[in-house]
Amino acid sequence: MSDLDRVNNRVSVARKDVEARGETFYPGPSRVHLSAFPPKERWDDWVELESTEWPKKVERRYMLVPTTCFNCESACGLLAYVDRETLEVKKFEGNPEHPGSRGRNCAKGPATLNQIKDPERILYPLKRKGKRGEGDWERVSWDEALDDLASRLRKALTENRKNEIMYHVGRPGEDGFANNVLGAWGVDGHNSHTNICSSSARVGFQLWVGSDRPSPDFANAEVIFLISSHLETGHYFNPHAQRIIEARERGAKVIVFDTRLSNTATHADHFISPYPGSEASINLAIANYLIQNDLYDSEFVCSWWNWEEYMRSCHPQEECTFDRFQVLLKDVYSDFTFDYAASEAQVNPEDLKEIAETVARAGNKLSVHNWRSAASGNLGGWQVSRSLYLLCTLMGAVATKGGTHLAAWNRFSPKPMHSPEGPDEWNELIWPKEYPLSYHEMSILLPHFLLEGRGKLDTYFTRVYNPVWTNPDGFSWIQALTDEDLVGMHVALTPTWNETSQYADYVLPMGLASERHDVHSYEQYNGQWIGFRQPVLRAARTRIGQDVTDTREVNPGEVWEENEFWMELSWRIDPTGELNIRKYFESKVNPGTRLSVDEYYSWMFDNSVPGLPEAAASEGITTLEYMRKYGAFEIRGEVGALYAENVDSDELKDVEVDKQGRVYTSAPRANEPHTTTAPKGPKREGLRCTGLLMGDDVKRGFPTPSGKLEFFSRTMVDWGWPELAMPGYIKSHIHPENLDDGQLVLLPTFRVPVQIHTRSGNSKWLDEIAHTNPLWINPLDADPLGVVTGDLLRVETDLGYFVVKAWVTESIKPSVVACSHHMGRWRVQVASQRQVTAAVNLDREGNKWNMRRISDKVAYKSSDPDTQRIWWSDLGVNQNLTFPVHPDPISGMHCWHQAVRVTRSHPTDRPGDIFVDTDKSSRIFREWLTLTRPVDTVSPDGTRRPSWFDRPGRPSDAAYQL
Amino acid sequence: MVELIRALGVFCEPPKDEHIKLAEILGFSESPCSDIYQEIFCHNLPPYASVYTSNEGIVGGEALGRISGFWQALQRDVPHDPDHLGRLLGLAALLEESQVSEQEPARALLIERSLAALFWEHLLPWAPMYLDRVESIGKGTVYGDWARLLSETLIYKFELLGPLEDLPRHLDASSGLLDPRRSGAPQFLSSLFAPVQSGFILLREDLNNLSAEIGISTEDHDRQGILKDLLRLAPKQTLEELAKVAYERSHYTSGKWGPLGDLCLHWERRAKESGELLHQLSCDLKEEN
Ligand code: SF4
Prior knowledge:
The structure holds two protein chains of two kinds.
Chain A: H1 3-20, E1 46-49, E2 59-68, E3 77-83, E4 89-94, H2 112-116, E5 126-129, E6 136-139, H3 142-158, E7 165-169, H4 177-185, E8 190-192, H5 199-209, E9 214-216, E10 223-226, H6 230-233, H7 237-250, E11 253-257, H8 263-266, E12 270-272, H9 279-292, H10 298-304, H11 307-314, H12 322-332, H13 338-345, H14 349-362, E13 366-369, H15 373-377, H16 382-395, E14 404-406, H17 407-410, H18 446-451, E15 457-463, H19 467-470, H20 474-481, E16 487-494, E17 506-509, E18 518-520, E19 528-533, H21 536-543, H22 562-573, H23 597-608, H24 612-618, H25 623-630, E20 632-636, E21 656-657, E22 662-665, E23 688-694, E24 697-699, H26 714-718, E25 744-747, H27 764-769, E26 775-777, H28 779-785, E27 792-796, E28 800-808, E29 816-818, E30 825-827, E31 837-845, E32 848-853, E33 898-904, E34 914-917, H29 918-929, H30 935-938, H31 957-960
Helix pairs in contact in A: 3-22, 4-22, 5-16, 9-13, 9-14, 9-16, 13-14
Chain B: H1 2-9, H2 17-25, H3 34-44, H4 49-53, H5 61-73, H6 85-101, H7 105-123, H8 127-137, H9 142-161, H10 169-172, H11 180-183, H12 185-192, H13 195-198, H14 204-214, H15 223-233, H16 235-248, H17 262-284
Helix pairs in contact in B: 1-6, 6-7, 7-9, 8-9, 14-15, 14-16, 15-16, 16-17
The structure holds iron/sulfur cluster.
């Protein structure tokens, strides 16, 4: 060994030692890191030069306090820079200690600063005066609001009107707290946004693998196959995008299917712009190529597909051997030639072949993802994700390095202090009989169910959710929300005004990213982490020795956080404990007093996050202090192929094995974080299913009924859809065969990377970048209309029309038009989010609704001088108001794409105009209901839903019975 | 050598607490100190490649563009100071690290070629003359030790990676010391302060020595000011002394940098040519009074 080698070794060893102690070896902002994160041991006192003082060199001292972004579902780590002198948050940057986001953010993360300083944010609890929706509000105290709500809820609970209580959440951004509150109340009232978002994709993955999301290991993939504009706006945007970029740097190939030329598409090695809804046919053509040419991993398929079940059910007369299965498999997709798929997709068959060859070369390093996009746009969209996952299962790219993992194994759900029993009633307003397989709640249909008399709501909470603007058919929402017989009280828990909160009785201000507690964990790579969102000023004050016991003490005005709100509300609902609610919110440390958030999270971190107590102890701090200090903890760096692991012998007691090889045991479940690894076989008294007998070994298997990858779904057969037992292709409601002459397809689903639904409208930096949503139209469609960019167009849907400016571009396929999400914000009463909302007149005559903007002015005077500098006036259009509901009969997903007619605008039309006839909404709602096969006609066992399909707030077994 | 390269990379940045421990691990005799750091890196030898590889002799110019282009070619974000020695060493460490961890042989080879290109194109063209000067003015300080160890490390790495086919673009694109008779006095002066043109680094200390040698005291100007004074007051002697400086700095091939082969030959030739031109200019002048 040379002298230099020796010195090199000395440095390496020293670095390992120092870093093992949690310290930084090289100076934090050193250039050799090729990044510039402040080293964590200096987070208490970090010095920076004040940029606004340049060229003077004025030093500013900060405390850096971690929290989590509250904008999109990625939950990236943020570091709040808290000025040590003024205890004010000066900026947000990325938290380098966060394993998912690794110090990086998208534009929306740092823009949190605008949100917390928004001059128009709601600072105090408000109660409506006058009629609902009239816009007259008075400030009330939290005590008044809490007491009023508590007595109302207590009355509903004691009068056994539990199903009249509903909590409707947009992006939860927290792991199960509210669910547990509802559980404690015994209410099946959890409603979510899922069926305007991801229901479809979830069903496709769930049917295969028993986990409703994929977790692609992009960073290690050879081929990345995206049916979406994933890198720029997809699910887990920043954490995934950075790993996709890393893979590309290594030379991985990126395949993008997107009808629109997205930013992601421009970076792809293969980009295909398919006709919307044809994606499943392409996936199947690729699968067919792999099968016909024996390019798939037959050993994997033989071991892990439930091909025997398929043979027994579909070919009972055939010999049940894998050889025979392979022969028959060649027939299954033989119709899906490249020519067929290319004609469905209106693309070049040669391009599809080239992509198939690329997929074949990926081996088991194939990472796939589809979340919204094609799955959420089309009738039968769930077959898009199902047929996509077929490719992974053929290539053996399941939970491999560079393959596609199961979310259930990479996402970590900590056990809370109390896990209340499920409610004993089933709520048919949320889980109606028509949709036994829906993923998840049928929230888009709520107004229709209310309006047709299926039930009513006593108290309805919307939580960071804006269905009037976001959901299809917003005028039906207004119709239901303004009828006090249908909705007794509407409580909006929200940081800002939005279209829906205008129709509330109480508007209760809730904190943003740096003003609230939550925990969360998402499947962003092959590993598991847990993140902590916290009120950063509370944490900062604690660091300097001040005691804060209520987040309102540090938040602006009287802004609160939900956890403390729910605890206090529950405490007031059941002050004596007679309703059995109080016990879930009582301190264990100081019995008789209300639980605090500190105790709640301390218990969770101490008792249910493996490795965290040890990590905290090594620094001589408590687990809560550790999470307050670093904001995140990695539980496991690599998870891998759990299905192939052997079940521990001490988990095998009183073993019974059924005909399908499922192994049952009486031993309790091992106390480890992966709780969803065993097959979901039928229940056996006193036993639980723990694995799968394979040869001499008991393997953990997959969390499906068979314990294997379900190419053939017995569930689909048993629950009334035998023709959809295997991955297939369903022609969309906007398939050319279903369009009238002259109709085009409207793609309304795409997001822009700097906005997130209506949640980011209170950020001036983001609004300046993106504030309008013109209609993308191909020159081949624009020219015959004589339309050029900037001209006004009228887009007619089945309910009415909207008026929008044209953007003539070849970036969209001919015969398809596209209009982005986020824009077209409006207000009828309270002046709020004026940088991105238009003041409108809303006229209603019977069931005919007209909306028109009343002023072009956007700039306004406020405490922030920037609001007078607003230069934009075009705010786009709320296209979703003109869409009828299109619930997919299987997944329950709202099928977003629309068949439309695009014409030049009429002389009196103005940008942003909306017209809708809600009579037509009810008619179309009923038409789509006829596509369903209600549970009372198909249930194989008298229950309401397959027991292995997850659902929030799972009710008792008795409630599952029809 | 990953960690050694990285550790050496942080020493051309202002000293922080971590440097003290690092200096110990690296076996340096002294601890880093802000004053000496300032004197060497801020007042005399800024650690930016473009100063030594651009025809202008200051940070920026085409040389900086070439270095930014290199980062881009590697598909990396270009930092605001891509030619800082610490950055380049950080990049070298990163490339070596990814080469070692790369399983795929073809990719590992590609990374190795990038690493070789980084050394050949952007580190070695200026490291010999730069580090020699740091070593000499930092003698007896931590930075003298640093320059010596970094020189050894670079030579060692070069012996493993080998040269590229053509002369580095930075050197190929330079024209040599400009002849004032053809290009005018200002250009001549500026090329004297652009090491890539003159073949040697001219520090303020060199000029002070030179004026002492000639016996002229100059005003407390910047380098250009001092040289202008000297050329005005004693042009012939000044040019002759400058020629000596150039000859003295033209012995790379016989020194420790010898293994660099063509690179050393280039510098030797360039410094010698400068010496010859300066000598010639001096001879052409009439005897001074
Ligand atoms: S909005 Fe951006 S920074 Fe925030 S969580 Fe999502 S991807 Fe991360």
